[in-house]
């Protein structure tokens, strides 16, 4: 039976071949540059896709939350890093997981560090997160006082091991000068390595964002790369130049429920609870919540004429249709939608359907509940 015959409602499809190619390409890039690839699994959030990654030499992984870390425990990862400023309310949960798994966390202030000193019962590594211009979180690159206070407090415990510095230059998503931002990031981490390496000879530096890691060829003396979105890619990454639309390995299959030829619009079952509400703006100022692809037995094809989701509500998606799509579409057909932000779409859907008709796990899926 075709995978298409299984679909009656919004379903997230994954092309294993494209996904593997994305992982392989980034793994080869890391190896070529002498770096360790430790992908951020907030995008894929899957045991099965993790098994694919291991086939390309990936041995460690990054989680966005302790919930995701728990989901990944017991899957053979050498270390799971939780790349979010640690929440002290989750110390008991961290202790439970760290009893049988190698974990590391991110620290951004001495208060959290002290609470961990007082509450940890099992060994945990930690990175100090650095802010070198993004402005979301982290210790400012020039705030050596806070960095050293975190190190000093942590040193009073035999349960906290300093691993190094983590930097997420997320502003690569908002500027065309990715090379300039990465040069700043390289310089920032290089400066910290020079400053603290004599005291901590095993210190490592890690940088993680897909746009920068995708386009950068010279990472300097950065030790580890931690991008995440590259596993699946999406329209946002294509617009940023991280990939082509052909590299996007997921699409949302949606049923056509109505067609308005006068307005050149197609109503589909697929809205904010499926795609999320991330949006792109085109040159004419039109909102784009996802672009239409044509589904077939082997996956999907990208049409020459663009049709896109112009608006969404909770369950509804309204497509601005090209003439060719209007001529071919019928009520009851299935269309594919390339997501603007694959991380959020996958999170909304909670599982994948492969092109050979197999369900692939996701942390947010029913099986995990």
Judged by helices, strands and strand pairing, the structural class is: alpha/beta
Question: Overall 3D geometry?
Answer: elongated
Question: Percent of residues in helical segments?
Answer: 25-40%
Number of domain units: 2
Main pleated sheet: 10 strands, mixed
Low-pLDDT segments, ≥5 res: none
Separation of termini?
Answer: 29 Å
Rg, Cα atoms, Å = 22 Å
Count of helical segments?
Answer: 12
CATH topology of the largest domain: TIM Barrel
Number of strands: 21
Mean residue pLDDT: 94
Please identify, by name, the CATH architecture of the largest domain. Alpha-Beta Barrel
Q: Can you tell me the CATH superfamily of the largest domain?
A: Alanine racemase
CATH class of the largest domain: Alpha Beta
Percentage of β-strand residues: 25-35%
GO biological process, one term: D-serine catabolic process
InterPro entries: Ala_racemase_N, D-amino_acid_metab_enzyme, D-ser_dehydrat-like_dom, D-ser_dehydrat-like_sf, PLP-binding_barrel
Family: Belongs to the DSD1 family.
Keywords: Lyase
């Amino acid at each position: 039976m075709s995978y298409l015959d299984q679909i009656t409602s919004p379903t997230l499809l994954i092309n294993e071949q494209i996904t593997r190619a994305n992982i392989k390409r980034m793994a080869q890039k890391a190896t070529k540059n002498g770096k360790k690839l430790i992908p951020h699994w907030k995008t894929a959030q899957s045991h099965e896709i993790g098994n694919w990654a291991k086939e390309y030499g990936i041995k460690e992984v990054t989680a966005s939350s302790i919930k995701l870390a728990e989901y990944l425990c017991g899957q053979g990862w050498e270390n799971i890093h939780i790349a979010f400023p640690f929440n002290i309310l989750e110390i008991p949960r961290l202790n439970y997981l760290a009893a049988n798994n190698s974990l590391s966390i991110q620290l951004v202030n001495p208060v959290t560090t002290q609470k961990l000193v007082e509450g940890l019962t099992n060994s945990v590594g930690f990175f100090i997160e650095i802010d070198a211009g993004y402005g979301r979180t982290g210790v400012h690159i020039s705030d050596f006082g806070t960095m050293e206070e975190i190190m000093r407090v942590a040193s009073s415990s035999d349960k906290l091991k300093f691993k190094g510095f983590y930097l997420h230059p997320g502003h690569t998503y908002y500027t065309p000068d990715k090379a300039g931002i990465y040069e700043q990031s390289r310089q920032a981490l290089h400066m910290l390595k020079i400053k603290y390496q004599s005291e901590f000879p095993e210190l490592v530096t890690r940088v993680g964002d897909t746009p920068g890691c995708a386009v950068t060829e010279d990472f300097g003396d950065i030790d580890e790369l931690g991008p995440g979105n590259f596993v699946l890619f999406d329209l946002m990454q294509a617009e940023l130049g991280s990939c082509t639309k052909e590299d996007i390995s997921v699409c949302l299959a949606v049923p056509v429920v109505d067609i308005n030829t006068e307005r050149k619009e197609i109503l589909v079952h697929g809205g904010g609870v499926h795609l999320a509400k991330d949006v792109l703006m085109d040159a004419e100022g039109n909102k784009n919540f996802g672009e239409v692809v044509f589904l077939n037995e082997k996956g999907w094809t990208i049409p020459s004429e663009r049709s896109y989701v112009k608006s969404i509500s909770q369950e509804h998606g309204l497509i601005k249709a090209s003439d060719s799509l209007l001529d071919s579409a019928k009520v009851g057909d299935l269309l594919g939608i390339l997501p603007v932000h694959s991380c959020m779409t996958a999170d909304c859907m909670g599982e994948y359907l492969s092109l050979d008709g197999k369900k692939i796990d996701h942390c947010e899926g029913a099986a995990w509940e």
